[in-house]
Amino acid sequence: MHAPVKLYLASSNPGKLEEFRALAGADAGLAWQLELLPDFKSLPPFHEDAPTFAENAAGKALHYSRFCDPPVFADDSGLVVPSLGGAPGVRSARYAGGAATSEQRNLKLLAAMRDKVGAARRAYFVCAIALAHRGHPKAIVTDRADGEILLEPRGKAGFGYDPVFYFPPLKRSFAEISREEKNKYSHRGRAFRKLLAFLA
Fold first, then answer.
1. Which of 160, 176, 47 is nearest to 95 (CA)?
2. What is the pLDDT of residues 101-142, one digit of tens each?
3. For residue 97, how many other CB atoms are within 10 A of its CB?
4. What is the CA 7 to chain-centroid distance, rounded?
5. H-type alpha helices, the chain
6. CA of 126: how far to CAs of 7, 36, 43, 170, in Å?
7. How far is it, in rounded angstroms, from Cα 146 to Cα 165?
8. CATH number for position 147
9. Residues carrying an active site annotation
10. How many CB atoms lie within 10 A of CB 79?
11. Range of the domain at 86
12. Cβ contact 128:56 at 8 Å
């Protein structure tokens, strides 16, 4: 049996690491050892100010891959509402200000959507994941999950914009579905499985 290949996640967030480990699944877990990039907070930061998710993910992966030997992957994701000109978009985490809570971001979004009906409430989550090794790009994958913005939050699970994002195939918000369902259908789950397929 081959030893698992180590991949570093360009993050200091253990919750995000656990999510990617869950997405990798039991079978992939034998092949890939996912770890947080050591001493992440002490490394020179990468400023995510590019206009697209893919550019932010690629820039972050390339930047941090220069500080270690194993391959590094990084993600950028967010919510896109076409009728709002693509907002919150790449500024999803900063939509209501850098110190805002998820609840405050959701309230701002719902206020912006107050007069929108029908197709104007369509939205989609995007995730871009980039892989780099020693400052060289190796892969970039993207995927999305399509839905619509609810009139008010629903559900207690998930995080971020999940309570206001209605997913028609399951007839529930992303905050009302199980972790297993979200891993199967979410933008991040779909994108990460593409990366694992590339690595395989």
1. 160
2. 999 999 999 999 999 999 999 999 999 999 999 999 999 999
3. 10
4. 17
5. 14-29, 53-65, 102-112, 179-185, 187-199
6. 22, 22, 27, 18
7. 9
8. 3.90.950.10
9. 76
10. 26
11. 5-199
12. yes
